[in-house]
């Protein structure tokens, strides 16, 4: 038998956000391939031909930036590093800041150049700085893609240029791009660069204007990366945050630059208009569970995680939580052992179930513990 506590209204006010996977929604975008994902949970809210491999152009650089940020976090490279451009980096075509072979630039300026103007020369120099060569860096890119479960992705370079050997096999999907975009956005420092509209490098001598026009024209834009080649068309991974909720809209193979921005705005607007985030918070309402033959008489379960739950905005007003815990548990109890369930509901309908677990282990009482306790009771009783 389980003891139940009546549902309690969530104390925190809810804001705009995401929801369970939605298919067949009344939304149509011009982009041939598209996906809308809520960043905190990775929930897909809309998809259109989202798993077809396509050339991503410079949206590739999201993975390049992710590996740079991870190398910084791991201490393999440093924010104060100076990066030297190799001949290979300086020879890159397409978007660039026109590095000369041997030219040195701070890592931060190179990172800014990649993010803001999609500089291929800086992307290559950073790749070489991280891994020694672009080829070695590409191996890291594909390994990381596998770790992120980007199942339909194969990289052959760090830039997305399609005039290089094997470029026809450099492919990914809208869904896979959303996965790596979500991973990159977990690095808060990248937002210092992806939200730049205009800036400069080389002591102000070389101006930068962001290729992502949403940074200036769409409320809450946090990034992320544009791309274009004649084969890939106009591509974009766009992210925006309002009231603590962030969406990622990926559109590929658009006919014009304007079309990609309009399609991304349409997806983001849809997310903000229709979904919200709820944070289950039972606080002190979880009752203790008696532990039979344990070194502690009771244990108070805790939620297995504090992840937010995605719901439709219309469900927010009726949100409640219900807690169910075991009547008792027999020792030994392992840390993380499930002891109950926290259920998030809207008007009585369940939305999500969060396991309630033991926060720590409770060993079983030994024979000597039991004997000593009995003697103590007898002595006190005397």
TrEMBL record:
It holds the Pfam family PBP5_C. One of its GO terms (molecular function) is serine-type D-Ala-D-Ala carboxypeptidase activity. GO terms for biological process: cell wall organization; peptidoglycan biosynthetic process; proteolysis; regulation of cell shape. Pathway: Cell wall biogenesis; peptidoglycan biosynthesis. Substrate binds at residue 225. Residues 1-24 form the signal peptide. The keyword RNA-binding does not apply. Residues 272-364 form the Peptidase S11 D-Ala-D-Ala carboxypeptidase A C-terminal domain. It catalyses: Preferential cleavage: (Ac)2-L-Lys-D-Ala-|-D-Ala. Also transpeptidation of peptidyl-alanyl moieties that are N-acyl substituents of D-alanine. InterPro entries: Beta-lactam/transpept-like (IPR012338), Peniciliin-bd_prot_C_sf (IPR015956), Peptidase_S11 (IPR018044), Peptidase_S11_C (IPR012907), Peptidase_S11_C_sf (IPR037167), Peptidase_S11_N (IPR001967). The active site is at 58 (acyl-ester intermediate), 61 (proton acceptor), 118. Keywords: Carboxypeptidase, Cell shape, Cell wall biogenesis/degradation, Hydrolase, Peptidoglycan synthesis, Protease, Signal. Its EC number is 3.4.16.4. PANTHER family: D-ALANYL-D-ALANINE CARBOXYPEPTIDASE, TRAFFICKING PROTEIN PARTICLE COMPLEX SUBUNIT 12. Belongs to the peptidase S11 family. Removes C-terminal D-alanyl residues from sugar-peptide cell wall precursors. This is serine-type D-Ala-D-Ala carboxypeptidase. It comes from Candidatus Avoscillospira stercorigallinarum.
